[in-house]
Fold:
Amino acid sequence: MAKLKFYGAAGEVTGSNHILEGDGVSIMIDCGFFQGVKVCDDKNNEKFPYDPSTIDALFVTHAHLDHVGRIPKLFNEGFKGKIYSTPPTREIARLMLDDTLRVIAREAKADGHEPLYHEDAVQKALAHWETVPYGKEILFKNGMSARLRDAGHILGSAMVEIARNGKKLAFSGDLGNSPSPLMPDTEHLSDVDYLVIEAVYGDRAHENINERTNHLKQVIEETIARDGTLMIPAFSIERTQDLLLELNEMIEGKQVPEIPVFVDSPLAIKVTKVFSDSKSYFNKTVQDDIRSGDDIFKFPKLRFTERSQDSIAIKSVPNPKIIMAGSGMSNGGRILHHEKNYLPDPKSTLLLVGYQAVGTMGRLLQEGIKSVRIFDEDIPVRAKVITIEGYSAHKDMNALLEFVGTMQDSLKKVFVVHAELGAGLFFAQRVRDYVGVDTVMPKAGEEIEIDF
Ligand SMILES: [Zn+2]
Structure:
């Protein structure tokens, strides 16, 4: 027998943290931030509800902060085990945690307390962090073995498959919106008895990929016709690179005229470099393009503005132009400078391509607010604000159900995590109805015994 314990992303979409405990071995899957309006929600300050020194190993599914944010804190509270992930996940997590140090220091200062952790804890985590390729077996003393499988979500993302006594348990991590522009399709899993699955979009269907590309093209054409600036607040991992790949195709394919495109985020620029160095992790189509000589992150008039003086100089580049910058929800980062400059301009457009959390400026803009406060100034919003759905890196409700359906013959029980209560319960019911498998949505702190 073994126990599954759910300590985060249980009944909510962030704070991923699960433990499998059986026969003297404890394996943790992910240890991420709880996130809301703040990058690091106050809830992260609470002590872990278990003793981290008793955990043997931590598997990291991918480098998003809601999966890696609390790893350094684990070391501050006694964790001594090894961390395993794919090589790109370790590399991107290193960049994310480094960037996070600055963000959590700023947020903590504003709230008048100490940051959650400092650089020494990040260094400890990296020193204990080993990389393994997809498919390689890691053995534990009680006979458990673990393997990473490609989740197709973001670069290096993995599902974790754990086998023991002829039975198999799989943690989905976040599941890719296959087919994705850059990533391979989610790998097929077989003979899975127990499945812990994310369901962020458990109750929603996505816009079709072709519609979203046409929509983007139309927004660019309108920007050119009006001689405006197109601002795209973009997340640093995957979204920025997906957009670059699409722009690369549109511009090199002469579907839209060449206009200046700026990637104005030091983090996104560093992450794009990791993508460039990890070409074997792309899907076959993109790998074939690269082999035929196309540099997918290079096209006429594309510029990466890492230094702040280059960022400031974007203002003097005549319209039309496209600026991609972080943060993705306009709650910080260089996008704020551009929004201050161009939101008052009726010729300009703000294009939202990612989830905008309640309480963020991005959400207010999405909902049509007429004036926003940026750097202590009231900024009138006269620019067009447009949302394109369909850039999600997650499977939608139908793809999730289809994924579970492929394991129908072997599945004994499904655990739904990483979903808001409504979406998760809705998805759990659909799995029961359509796949016919016992499905539950664990509560935070819940422990469930399984025959494993
Ligand atoms: Zn993710």
